[in-house]
Design a protein that fits this description.
disordered C terminus, eight-stranded mixed beta sheet, Rossmann fold
């Protein structure tokens, strides 16, 4: 399937369909593939980091779909309100809750109804009454402005067709002085056309990724300051997968010319909104 022939809504429907399937699978099955071991590919391209040593980790909520540990770097304080974009079965939300404490609040937002159902079941089993899950679109978050002290997200924003809008919404829902920590997939060097066209790799977070520098510019243009790269690691695609999409003679060239990176990025919303003046403050 060619994702370049799909419009924004069709891409969103593709993501919803595939992640509904993934919600029904085990972590082991999902972690064995670039896109949850559904029909697109069945080789090992696991991008997930190990959550098991983090307080609040709930194995039943870990579907192995992440590419980093944003909650480890998110500087969450007791009493914070935390929003997780693309919350899946609730894994990052439950880790965030352990950091925000009983007086904090965690809100998970996910596009897929089945994921929301699964996350709510997990929260109920764990007896958490300060974690809630809302179905919604990251490009139009179901949250009031200035709701969150902290926003986290793990390998999800690369799936959003309009990343500019996603970060503008992140900015809107953060309180002044709030911050985000997100893990995501970015590129260095344009992907070969055959890889870029693969809708299956879009669902697997790879062909939906954009250039690292473009990603950073989108974040800064949304208004964020003190943007810091907290962690970076390279993702290696095995020959078995590359051979599905590239001629044999292009595989070696791909390895030398292109990088697929998992990054964890931090940014702050200014304490004062410089774009809005109170009456009488502007000439």
């Amino acid at each position: 399937m060619n994702n370049q022939n799909l419009n924004s809504e069709q891409l969103k429907n593709l993501v919803r369909e595939k992640y509904t399937e993934i919600a029904e699978q085990s972590k082991e099955t999902n972690a064995s593939s670039c896109c949850g071991a559904i029909e697109c590919c069945t080789v090992d391209v696991s991008m997930a980091d190990n959550y098991s040593k983090l307080d609040g980790y709930a194995p039943e909520a870990d579907l192995g779909l992440g590419c980093g540990l944003p909650t480890e770097f998110a500087k969450i304080s007791k009493g914070d309100t935390v929003v997780d974009l693309g919350s899946g079965a609730g894994n990052d939300c439950f880790v965030a809750r352990s950091q925000a404490g009983d007086n904090g609040k965690v809100i998970g937002v996910d596009f897929t109804e089945r994921m929301i159902e699964k996350a709510r079941l997990n929260a109920n089993k764990l007896g958490y009454n300060n974690v809630e899950f809302r179905q919604g679109d990251i490009e139009n978050l179901p949250l009031a402005s200035e709701t969150a002290d902290v926003v986290v997200s793990n390998c999800v924003l690369n799936l959003v067709p309009n990343k500019k809008k996603a970060f503008e919404e992140t900015y809107r829902v953060l309180k002044n002085g709030g911050h985000f920590s997100v893990s995501d997939i970015v590129l260095e060097g344009e992907l070969p056309e055959n890889l870029r066209k693969a809708a299956e790799l879009y669902v697997g977070c790879i062909s939906g990724a954009i250039q690292k520098q473009e990603y950073l510019e989108i974040v800064k243009k949304a208004g964020f300051v003190n943007v810091v790269l907290q962690k970076e690691k390279q993702i290696a695609l095995p020959d078995e997968l590359l051979n599905e999409y590239l001629p044999e003679e292009e595989v070696a060239a791909f390895k030398s010319k292109y990088k697929i990176l998992s990054i964890t990025l931090y940014g702050e919303k200014p304490t004062e909104n410089k774009g809005c003046c109170s009456p009488g403050c502007c000439n």
